[in-house]
From TrEMBL:
SUPFAM superfamilies: Calcium-dependent phosphotriesterase, TPR-like. PROSITE patterns: TPR. Keywords: Repeat, TPR repeat. This is Uncharacterized protein. It comes from marine metagenome.
Amino acid sequence: MILLSDTLKKNVIVLTVSFAFFFVNISYGETPVSIYLRNGDRITGRWLNADNRIIKIDFNGQEMSVSLDEISSISITSNTISEKYLKNAEDLLKLGLRNQARKLFELSIQESPQNAKAYYQMAELFQEDGETDNAIKYFGLAAAVDPSYDLSEQFILSATAYLSKDEFVKAAESYILLFENYPEHEQCAYAGYQAAFLLTESVEAFDQALELLMQVTEKFPENGDYEKAQYLIGKLQVETNQDELAISTLTNFILTYTTSQWLPYAYTMRGRAFLKLHQNGEAITDFTTAIEMTQDLKLQQEIRQMRDSSAWMIYRVSDGLPSNKVKAIAVDGTTIWIGTSKGLTEADTSSAFWEIKTEITTQLEEMFEGSPLNIQSLAADEDELWIGTMNHGVIRYNKATGSIENYTQDHGLPHKLVYDIKIFGSEVWMGTFSGVAQYSRSADGWRIFNREVDELPADDIVALEVTPRTVWIGTSKSGVAFYDREFNYWRSYGDLEGLDSIVGNSIVSFDTIGSQLFFTWYNQSNETSGYTECDLDSLSSFSEEVVRGDLDSLVRPENIHIAVTEDEVWLATNDGVYKNTRDTGEWDLISYPEDRIGNPIINSIELGDSVAWIGTSNGLARINTSALNLREEELKPKLEEEESYE
């Protein structure tokens, strides 16, 4: 009896060799045949012919076609005609008449498809003629019809030969022939594991590989490849979307094989399963643990990309933004103010869902008669929101009353273009295209600083920062300066203070923490950008180059924005987000999810509660910063809880 099985991958690999596959368009005369169907029925008739899809028989005088997919097995009665052809073929072989012998072997098989010896002789002829593929097919048929033929060595040799030519599908087929037909052979375990590994790693026939691995590990749990196979079972469960089962399998692997070389891979695959189930925190924990475990730089990079992607959320016009070009952000408790090239949006982040509020958006549209505001800067405190624009000066919004005031050059503002705003107590400082403006909310008065009257390096003030004793300004091409509030003078900050020569004159952003001032810069002469940390008491500084560009690069270095906490320095660049742990000095590059945001141009960064918000040319990006800092110890109680529950 010949058993028929499903193909493993795209009808290429056959677990138990199918009869009809080897007899395309060949007639088999009037041989009696019984066909056993998968539904339990049996059809008896006389053999006509077959191809790789159907078998045709004479059933009560009528031609009947039966699909191979419906057939479980076939029983064909041997006959003396077949044996006669076989003996004559063997006699011809002894006389050296190979071609004539081959024809008779074929006739023998046509008369009796269960003639194992004829298959074997045909296989040997093909092998002697160097036709390896045909030889293996016929050896497989011989083994399937009569397992007493020990062809295991043939299958091992053919698998080795196929592997040397990177023919992984055929190698797997050869191993499977041994595994299926010789379950007691000493090489059976080896063949089964090797076939499963090839199907997983080289062929990527995941469903079939998983089925085979389950069979092999159940039969040979003491084999040296069992550990790797257990990891691969979890991996394949992820690949075949059995994610909850995969988490259980991989968790068991992690707890069992604590020193395994496959441990980083197990964490990575479990992270993927968590991610597919939208358990991003757990996913990031596993990815981070895997990164720390492996010394393989390529693997680290691959895992980091998965981890980074899982930490991101991207908000765009479809989520309620007026434009995807986000220029400015203000974090105001659980409220996020978002300034875009086409207006302002208020978002409530107090719940798990993103909620857009439209009151101020509507007010501004009515105030400016539908003309969209190109917003450049935002600053918020407990009472007010200040909005710097490209063409409409600065807007003051009272959060309690909802009142709006618009200050322009008619009110004392140096220029209608307001690059940056900082609130310090009752003071509101603004960097404009024509100098610095200070507005006193308590006195309702303006004070203007510009190059004509004061010792500013330039009037285009693109960034500023305010401290109790100083006001720092950054210009587009003329470096940094600060204002001494006590002694009322301006002073450039540079060589005399020991500023490193790598620092560029194009200043991008500022931030402060305690007595430390940070600013980012772009050096146009050598296409680099970086940041400087300055001690506000001694004015000593440390500078570091972060991004180096070139003319051929798609990533430009001039956009680099900074946000600082007591523990970390965050730099948002066009190249990615760099996070520096201040106590160790270690840098971590967090890549953008290119499939969702492309290659963005960065306009701003602000830190919130366990969140970093980044304004880009392709939307508002949010990183879950607390999740990125998770480690395995934080997940361990959850794993133990899951284990005890099971």
